[in-house]
Write a structure and sequence with these properties.
The complex is a heterodimer of chains A (about 220) and B (about 250). By secondary structure, chain A is mainly alpha-helical. Helix content of chain A is about 75%, strand content about 0%. Chain A has one domain. Helices cover about 35% and strands about 10% of the residues of chain B. Chain B is built from nine helices and seven strands; from the N terminus they run E-E-H-E-E-E-E-E-H-H-H-H-H-H-H-H. In chain B, the strands form two sheets. In chain B, strands 2-1-5-3-4 form a five-stranded mixed beta sheet. Chain B has a two-stranded antiparallel ribbon with strand order 6-7. Chain B starts with a strand and ends with a helix. Classes of the chains: A mainly alpha (about 220), B alpha+beta (about 250). Chains A and B meet through helix 1, helix 4 and helix 9 of A and strand 4, helix 7, helix 8 and helix 9 of B.
Chain lengths: ~220, ~250
């Protein structure tokens, strides 16, 4: 294990492991979200579960650490990679590669992060965070969702955010396996397809919520 | 055919370079790209001007000496070829062609389009030796090797060390080169003996020389004149991580 994290591959090992952890977190997050499509009571019950379950309470700081590590190492890696080409080409690359996302992971990541800040202040800070700091959380989380997603501009922002997230996962998911060395010529195309399918499913599930409310399908909050 | 050329001129590694424009006419579509540069250089010499320095040697795509970043692509607008195998028929009459040297912190410009790729040699040296028994020529079938393994090792060994992977990668990463070298030996029993040490040493050298890291964009694989697959990069990652975990 000696100085593994000093090496470029060691740093990417951290990126891939934290990335896969965040990918799994997204699945949990979106499955809580979609309960809002069923009923007000289902969503509020799911939120209560997230606020009170002991395992979730333990995992929240771990999740925050996962985000911090992923962001920190992306900065370290990007700075080193930028230094590797001090003089840029005057004609930009015309090489056809598998995806646009692959070449722009850092920029897409920054977009995801910006919207994440907005999202955390609008939702998380009023919901789960309050249980951590001993404050008073939303009595009816469904009402909060109902109000925010009633605004079209908020829905547009949300969809743009999820689109960025889609591109980030569609590359990051298979890329993580490649970095871990769990890949070969047969599995590269397979994992790329699995990554796309996963990213599409997660993105569609996230986007379905604002769509549901903006179309006026939500129950009026009690 | 006639072309307008925009070529990078730079006196030496420390000098500040800039583009110089040239017009060239009466070029046959069957002229190779390097022959076209030869024709231009002949003209420059007869005019008493300094010819353009560029790397080349075998001119049959096996030595890995030629380079050039042509109109935004390493080895120019053709797949699976080196610059010496590129022909002017791949361009349209009257095209403007921009020619730049490989751009990488680890490949300093020597002059004009010629770059110093000694960093690759240093990585190879760091990789060390392969243990083989001395003596007479061994029997052909003395060491059985499965056909798929032999094929994969050969595919990796096709690397000519031209540096197109570094030139193309947006991170200036040498991972495909290192992966090809590690892979070609790790897949064979003869090279297996020092495989773990080799992976660690070559990656350490690569990092030290200022190459960037791999972000799996697959650009290297697309521009590699020998079409070496990034599956070898997965193997390098595996070899390296396993070796480090055993430490």
């Amino acid at each position: 294990m000696s100085n593994i994290f000093c090496s470029s591959i060691g740093k990417k090992l951290i990126m891939s492991l934290s990335g896969l952890f965040l990918v799994i977190f997204l699945l949990l997050h979106v499955s809580i979200n979609v309960t809002a499509l069923f009923s007000q009571n289902a969503y509020n019950a799911a939120c209560r579960f997230m606020d009170t379950n002991i395992l979730i309470q333990v995992m929240v700081p771990v999740l925050a650490l996962g985000f911090a590590v992923h962001i920190l190492f992306s900065l370290i890696i990007t700075v080193k990679n930028q230094k590797a080409r001090p003089v840029k080409y005057s004609v930009s690359s015309k090489t056809e590669t598998s995806s646009w996302a692959a070449k722009n992971m850092f920029v897409i990541g920054v977009i995801v992060l910006c919207f994440l800040g907005l999202h955390l202040t609008h939702f998380w800070a009023k919901m789960q965070l309050q249980h951590f700091i001993g404050g008073h959380g939303e009595d009816n989380p469904y009402a909060l969702v109902y109000t925010l997603f009633g605004e079209w501009y908020y829905c547009v922002l949300y969809v743009v955010w999820i689109a960025a997230l889609y591109f980030h996962i569609s590359h990051g998911f298979w890329s993580a396996f490649q970095t871990l060395g769990i890949n070969n010529s047969k599995w590269i195309p397979r994992l790329q397809i699995i990554a796309k399918i996963y990213a599409i499913l997660v993105a569609l599930a996230f986007i379905s919520i604002p769509l549901y409310f903006i179309l006026g399908l939500g129950e009026p909050p009690k | 055919m006639k072309f307008k050329l925009k070529i990078w001129r730079q006196k030496n590694a420390k000098a500040k370079g800039q583009f110089e424009s040239f017009s060239i006419e009466n070029i046959s579509s069957d002229t190779s790209f390097l022959e076209m540069l030869d024709i231009l250089n002949n003209r420059l010499i007869s005019e008493g001007k300094e010819p353009i320095a560029f790397d080349h040697d075998c001119r049959e795509g096996i030595c890995g000496m030629c380079s050039l970043y042509i109109n935004g692509r390493a080895h120019g607008p053709d797949d699976d070829v080196t610059t010496c195998q590129l022909h002017m028929r791949k361009f349209r009459d009257g095209d403007t062609i921009t020619i730049e040297p490989w751009r990488s912190a680890a490949f300093p410009v020597i002059r004009d389009l010629a770059v110093n790729r000694y960093a690759f040699d240093q990585i190879l040296q760091a990789g060390g030796f392969v243990s083989v028994n001395t003596g007479g020529v061994p029997d052909g079938n003395a060491v059985p090797i499965a056909k798929p393994d032999a094929d994969e090792a050969m595919d990796a060994a096709a690397c000519i060390g031209c540096g197109a992977c570094v030139a193309t990668c947006k991170n200036g990463s040498a991972m495909l080169f290192v992966a090809a070298r590690v892979s070609s030996l790790a897949k064979l029993p003869q090279g297996r003996v020092e495989a773990t040490g080799r992976a660690k040493a070559m990656v350490a050298k690569m990092d030290e020389l200022g190459f960037g890291g791999c972000t799996n964009t697959q650009a290297c694989e697309a521009e590699c004149p020998k079409a070496i697959s990034i599956s070898h990069i997965a193997r390098l990652n595996r070899e390296f991580l396993c070796a480090k975990l055993q430490d």
